[in-house]
Amino acid sequence: MRFEGRRVLTLESRRAPELALLVVNYGGDPMIAPALLEIPLESNLAALAFADALIHGEYDLLVLMTGIGTRLLLRLSAPVYGDAFVSALAATRIIARGPKPVAALREIGVSPWLTVPRPNTWHEVITTLDTRAPGVCAGGTRVAVQEYGMANPDLMSALEARGAEVTSVPIYRWALPDDVRPLRAAVHALVRNEIDVVILTAGVQIVHLLQVAAEMRMESDTRRALERLVVASIGPMTSEELRRQGLPIDMEPTNPKMGFLVKEVAERCGALLAAKRHLQ
To answer: What are 166-215's pLDDT values in tens digits?
Structure first.
C-alpha cells in the first residue's frame, strides 16, 4: 500500500529531507514545515555546576533522558573537567531512558545502573525504579535529571513523591525556527483541508505548530483540522504530548524508527481516513 498522492505534512527539522524522501518513495506529496530549532546551551552554567557537583559526590542517582543530551553534557564538561567527569559518571548510579543514552555512555566505557525498557516514557522510568530498586529514592536521595529540551514536571513530581531531592539539569532547549513561514503555511493548509496526514517525530512539534496557529488566531481551526486527518506519532513520548493537548493519535509504528513510521502510515492511511470521514 502507498500514499497514492495524498498530502503528508511533516514537522521534522534535522532529518526533514530524509523524511520527505521516504514520503515520496511511498507515493506521497510531502509538505515540509520544520517546527523546532535545537539549541545547545554552550555556556551552560547549570550543566557545568552539575558536573562539578557530581565529581564531588553530591548526587546519588542520575537520570539520562536522551542520547544527544548525554553527549552534549560530555562535550560541555570535557574542556573544564576532562576525565574527572567520566570517572564520576562511572561511579554514579545511572538510569538510562532507553538505548540512546546507553549508546552514548558506551562510547566512554560507562554502563548504566538501570536501563528503562520500551516505550521509554517517564512512566517507565518510575516503574523501573519501583520494581527493580524499591525505596531507592526514600530519605532524600539526591537525584539529577538531564532535561531533553523542556522540563518534565511529571517525572520530577513522581521522584519527589518517593522522597527524592530532585535537580533538573538543562542541556539544550527547543525553540521555534528562525523562519516560521513554513509553519504558517502549514496552518493555512490544514485549515483549508489540504492535508491528509500529519507525521510527528517529537512532541514539541505539535506544541510549536499550535503556538504559531494561536499567534495567527487560528488555533481552534487547526485543532478541528487535526481531528479530520490522520495523525501519525513516532512513539510514546510524542503520543504523550498529543494526549496532553487533547489531540487524536491515529497510529504509532510497530518500531519507533522513521522508516517504519512512514511505511506503516502509508499502508494504513487510506483505511484510517475512510473510517474518520465515515464518522464525520
So the answer is: 999 988 778 899 999 999 999 999 999 999 999 999 889 999 999 999 99
Phi, psi (rounded to 5 degrees) for 29: -110, 100
Q: Which amino acid is at 266?
A: A
Band (pLDDT 50/70/90 cuts) for residue 236 is confident
Query: Which three cell numbers mark 21?
Result: 524522501
Distance in angstroms (rounded) separating the CA atoms of residues 123 and 222: 29
The reported pLDDT for the residue numbered 225 is 96
The residue ranges of every structural domain in the chain are: 7-36+178-279, 40-173
Q: Which residue has the cell 527524592?
A: 164
Burial of 73 (C-beta count, 10 Å sphere; 0-12/13-18/19+): buried
Strand-by-strand arrangement of the 197-200 sheet? 29-32, 7-10, 197-200, 230-233
- CATH topology of 7-36+178-279 equal to that of 40-173? yes
In degrees and rounded to multiples of 5, residue 152 shows phi and psi of -115, 85
Does residue 66 register a pLDDT over 70?
Answer: yes
Q: Which residues pair with 64 in a beta bridge?
A: 96
The CA R_g of the chain, rounded to the nearest whole Å, is 20
Q: What is the pLDDT of residues 248-277, one digit of tens each?
A: 999 999 887 889 999 999 999 999 998 887
Q: What is the pTM of this model?
A: 0.76
What percent helix, strand, coil does the chain show, rounded to 5? 50, 15, 35
Report, at the CATH architecture level, how domain 40-173 is classified: 3-Layer(aba) Sandwich (3.40)
In the CATH scheme, what is the code of domain 7-36+178-279? Answer: 3.40.50.10090
Q: For residues 200 and 235, what is the distance between their CA atoms, to the nearest angstrom?
A: 9
